[in-house]
């Protein structure tokens, strides 16, 4: 049964055409109602713009101010770069593909786009995992932090992140490991002119999901849980010498921060990677609309990351406010000069 043929089963679909009317083996094109298309273009387009702008506001201060050249900020910079590139390179063509249900940019660009998508999403998640390791040493072993988490160590973390991400993304797609052993089925039943999807066999979907999500996700969950438990134990140990209300407030803030970090990450990416793993085992019966929806929910993590990982820092918030207020009356160079004072007192 093909989706979109019956309006009663897919009310959002108004009509079905071919992506290329004059080409044999063309994919079917599903047309959304005009109002729905406009709203979705506005929503997804705004999400892309917000992703780019939010991550630029993280990248610019870190690059510009030497006071912010710290190991933690290098990891945040790597995360913001991955999310920025996702907003620039992946989201715009994905908007067109998702809403027009056709791919008009050729097979080669389809492979590049798909590989870049997988690479950047994986890099974003791995960066989050390494940030959790950085936070673990900062909170749980503060005396060892400067010894264990050096610039050299962080650069190795970043190199591992981008190397693993590039291997997972580009090698899987260009070597066609994702369809290995299922080539005949893919080209006879899935591939068509105007389609650009990441079709994966059982091994590929399982291995890529484990590397890109499950290992980093379990690692992050374990690390943040340990950070929270140690922070609670430290707070209890100083209750006799510290105002109890202040301690309670600190505990609540730590709980809220860790809950937001893990809640956002798991909420955004869990639906996609669960479906991505089980889809080959249920004969690829996941509705395409549901799959695309879960992909965009995953992208949303890159939109929210600047707020979760950067806006928690007061000096970041102060820098952003100063840049925005200065830009209202001066150029960006003057804004940077104004902001210099607000970060010069930053303490690692």
UniProtKB/TrEMBL annotation:
Stretches assigned to the G-protein coupled receptors family 1 profile domain: 54-309
Location(s) in or outside the cell: Cell membrane
Keywords of this entry: Cell membrane, Disulfide bond, G-protein coupled receptor, Glycoprotein, Membrane, Receptor, Transducer, Transmembrane, Transmembrane helix
Membrane protein topology class: Multi-pass membrane protein
Transmembrane segments: 38-62, 74-92, 112-133, 153-175, 211-231, 258-282, 288-312
Any one cellular-component term (Gene Ontology): plasma membrane
Chief location of this protein within or outside the cell: membrane
Keyword Transmembrane helix: yes
Pfam families, alphabetized: 7tm_1 (PF00001)
Molecular function (Gene Ontology), one example: trace-amine receptor activity
Stated family: Belongs to the G-protein coupled receptor 1 family.
Stated name of the protein: Trace amine-associated receptor 1
Lineage: Eukaryota, Metazoa, Chordata, Craniata, Vertebrata
């Amino acid at each position: 049964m093909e989706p979109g043929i019956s309006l009663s089963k897919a009310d959002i679909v108004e009509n079905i055409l071919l992506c290329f009317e004059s080409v044999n083996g063309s994919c079917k094109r599903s047309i959304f109602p005009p109002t729905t298309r406009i709203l979705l273009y506005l929503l997804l387009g705004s999400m892309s713009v917000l992703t780019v702008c939010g991550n630029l506001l993280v990248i610019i201060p870190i690059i510009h101010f030497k006071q912010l050249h710290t190991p933690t900020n290098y990891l945040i910079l790597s995360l913001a770069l991955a999310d920025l590139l996702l907003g620039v390179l992946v989201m715009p063509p994905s908007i067109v593909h998702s809403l027009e249900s056709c791919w008009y940019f050729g097979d080669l660009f389809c492979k590049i786009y798909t590989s870049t998508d997988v690479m950047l999403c994986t890099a974003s998640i791995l960066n989050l995992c390494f940030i959790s390791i950085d936070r673990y040493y900062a909170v749980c072993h503060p005396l060892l932090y400067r010894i264990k988490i050096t610039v050299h160590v962080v650069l190795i973390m970043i190199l591992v992140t981008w190397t693993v991400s590039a291997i997972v993304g580009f090698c899987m797609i260009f070597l066609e490991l994702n369809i290995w052993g299922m080539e005949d089925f893919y080209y006879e039943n899935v591939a068509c002119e105007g389609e650009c999807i990441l079709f994966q066999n059982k091994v590929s979907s399982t291995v890529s999901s484990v590397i890109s999500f499950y290992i980093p996700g379990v690692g992050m969950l374990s690390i943040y849980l340990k950070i929270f438990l140690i922070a609670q134990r430290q707070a209890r140990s100083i209750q006799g010498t510290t105002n109890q209300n202040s301690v309670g407030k600190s505990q609540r803030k730590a709980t809220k921060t860790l809950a937001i970090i893990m809640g956002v990450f798991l909420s955004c990416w869990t639906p996609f990677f669960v479906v991505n793993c089980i889809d080959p085992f249920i004969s690829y019966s996941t509705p395409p609309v549901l799959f695309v929806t879960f992909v965009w929910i995953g992208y949303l993590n890159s939109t929210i990351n600047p707020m979760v990982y950067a806006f928690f820092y007061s000096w970041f918030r102060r820098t952003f406010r100063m840049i925005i207020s200065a830009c209202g009356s001066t150029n960006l160079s003057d804004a940077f000069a104004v902001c210099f004072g607000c970060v010069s007192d930053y303490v690692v």
